[in-house]
Write a structure and sequence with these properties.
By secondary structure, the protein is α+β, with helices and mostly antiparallel strands. It contains 6 helices and 6 strands.
Length: about 220
């Protein structure tokens, strides 16, 4: 077997290993799709007619506008608000979108220390493990965050005993990402193509705590 063929097989093996590790940590990536799905009149009407658990004698629009009617998240978010009256779901989701971009890009650019306070120990170790593998193999990632296509609160849970609240969010983002070897040769991805990244991240925090920071405690796809 020639040296050039052997080198290609080694690089292919590295690429497959890296892709599997990335999927386990961050989720899946798909090709860019231009058409965007719009809500039809029926869905829009259903959203407007939701009935939700109330906190102070009326419908809490902050909850009603962000979660599915009849879901567990309705009562759990209401419990989180009772534990911390200043908690606002809409504001939290806005912050979560910014945190997603910040953490994702810190991971891609091998800069986890800049977001260390926002990562639970288990998540930090998982992310750092992938980064260390890239460094050992001499691989470099070029990444650019294009924007969020979707951000959806899909579940929430509140523990009365510990006062810990957890919120699970589904993200669909657009980014440009490619992996290169030490010589700059493209291994995976396309430096000019927009890809779709799908993730489900869970953030947690002790409600009522003086520390305002939520931590990323779990990732999936």
């Amino acid at each position: 077997m020639s040296q050039s063929i052997l080198s290609l097989l080694v690089l292919a093996g590295i690429a497959i290993f890296l892709i599997l590790r990335l999927r386990n940590v961050l989720g899946t990536r798909e090709g860019f799709e231009k058409p965007r799905v719009e809500l039809d009149d029926t869905v829009a009407s259903d959203r407007g007619s939701k009935t939700f658990e109330v906190i102070e004698g009326g419908v809490d629009r902050d909850i009603a506008d962000n979660v599915a009617d009849g879901s567990r998240a309705v009562t759990e978010l209401a419990a989180m608000k009772r534990a911390e009256p200043s908690f606002n779901v809409t504001e939290f989701l806005g912050g979560a979108g910014g945190a997603y971009e910040m953490i994702l890009m810190a991971f891609e650019h091998d800069d986890l220390e800049s977001v260390r306070d926002f990562l639970a120990d288990e998540v930090y170790e998982a992310f750092d493990g992938v980064i260390q593998t890239r460094r050992e193999q001499g691989l470099q990632v070029q990444a650019q965050f294009v924007g969020l296509r979707e951000l959806q609160l899909i579940d929430a849970e509140f523990d009365n005993a510990t006062r810990e609240g957890e919120v699970k969010i589904r993200f669909v983002a657009e980014l440009i990402s490619s992996v290169h070897d030490a010589d700059g040769k493209l291994i995976e991805g396309n430096p000019t193509e927009i890809k779709r990244q799908k993730d489900i991240w869970t953030f947690a925090r002790e409600m009522g705590s003086n520390d305002p920071n939520w931590q990323l405690v779990a990732t999936g796809a």
